[in-house]
Design goal:
This is Beta-phosphoglucomutase. One of its GO terms (molecular function) is beta-phosphoglucomutase activity. Its cofactor is Mg(2+). Belongs to the HAD-like hydrolase superfamily. CbbY/CbbZ/Gph/YieH family. The chain is an alpha/beta fold. It is built from nine helices and six strands; from the N terminus they run E-H-H-H-H-H-E-H-E-H-E-H-E-E-H. The chain has a six-stranded parallel β-sheet. Helix 1 packs across helix 4. It is globular. The protein starts with a strand and ends with a helix. Bound molecules: 6-O-phosphono-beta-D-glucopyranose and magnesium ion. The site of 6-O-phosphono-beta-D-glucopyranose has 17 residues, from helix 3.
C-alpha cells in the first residue's frame, strides 16, 4: 500500500534549468568557451560540483580545487540573483494540484532535491507547507543516482521505501528512485527515462488514483 510520494524539484515542480543555464554559460564564457542547450541537458539533476566538473571537462579547462570553489560560488551568486524573482507563477502546470491531490488522498509528501537552493525556491513558489519533509543537497553525501536522497526522504517521513513513489525528470534521478527500491514516475520522454515504471509529460497529467491501491 502506497503511503507517500517523493518529488524532485527542478524539472518536475518548476523549471529552473533555464536559470542554471544562464549562470553556467556566464562561467564558461569567463573561462573562454561556450555551452549550448544540448550540453545543458546533461546537467539536469546533477549536483553543483559534479556539474562544474562536467563543464570544465567539456571546455578542456583544468582548475585547482580553490579555483573551482570560487567559480562555483560565483555561479551560485548569479543563480540566486536569477531565482530571486520567482513566484507562484513559476510553478509548472499541475504541480500545486498534484501535491494537493496526494495530501487529499491521505498520503505524505516529501521533496528530494539535488539543489542546495531547494528550500528557498519552495518558499518563492509558495508551496513549502505542502511538504511533510524536505531533503536537499545539504543533507546528503552522495548525489543521484545514489539512492541516499530518496532513502533519507522516506526515513524522515517514517515510511518504508517500497511504500513510496518517486517522481523525477532526470535519468540519474529515476535511477536514484529505483536504487532506493521505490516505484518511479518519470516526467518527460519514455525513450529517455527507460528505467521509470510509468512516464507522463508533466504533472498536469498526474492522477494520484492511477498510482495508489485503494482498499
Ligand atoms: C539540481 C538541478 O536539482 O540541482 C541541477 O537539476 C543543479 O541543474 C543542482 O546543478 C544543484 O543545484 P544548486 O542550487 O545546489 O547549485
Ligand atoms: Mg530534476
Amino acid at each position: 500500500q502506497i503511503q507517500a510520494f517523493v518529488f524532485d524539484l527542478d524539472g518536475v515542480i518548476t523549471d529552473t534549468a533555464k536559470f542554471h543555464f544562464i549562470a553556467w554559460q556566464k562561467l564558461a564564457q569567463r573561462l573562454g568557451f561556450d555551452i549550448d542547450h544540448e550540453f545543458n541537458e546533461r546537467l539536469k539533476g546533477v549536483g553543483r560540483m559534479d556539474s562544474l566538473n562536467l563543464i570544465l571537462q567539456h571546455g578542456g579547462v583544468i582548475l585547482t580545487d580553490e579555483q573551482k570553489d570560487k567559480e562555483a560560488a560565483q555561479k551560485n551568486d548569479e543563480y540566486v540573483e536569477l531565482i530571486a524573482d520567482m513566484s507562484a507563477a513559476d510553478l509548472l502546470p499541475g504541480a500545486r494540484e498534484a501535491l494537493e491531490s496526494v495530501r487529499g488522498a491521505g498520503l505524505k509528501t516529501a521533496l528530494a532535491s539535488a539543489s542546495k537552493n531547494a528550500p528557498a525556491i519552495l518558499a518563492r513558489l509558495g508551496i513549502s507547507d505542502l511538504f511533510d519533509t524536505v531533503v536537499d543537497a545539504n543533507l546528503v553525501v552522495n548525489g543521484k543516482p545514489d539512492p541516499e536522497i530518496f532513502l533519507k526522504a522516506a526515513a524522515q517521513l517514517g515510511v518504508s521505501p517500497n511504500a513510496c513513489i518517486g517522481v523525477e525528470d532526470a535519468v540519474a534521478g529515476v535511477q536514484s528512485i529505483k536504487n532506493a527500491g521505490m516505484y518511479a514516475i518519470g516526467i518527460g520522454d519514455a525513450r529517455v527515462l527507460t528505467r521509470a515504471d510509468a512516464v507522463i509529460d508533466g504533472l498536469h497529467q498526474f492522477d494520484v488514483n492511477r498510482f495508489i491501491v485503494k482498499d
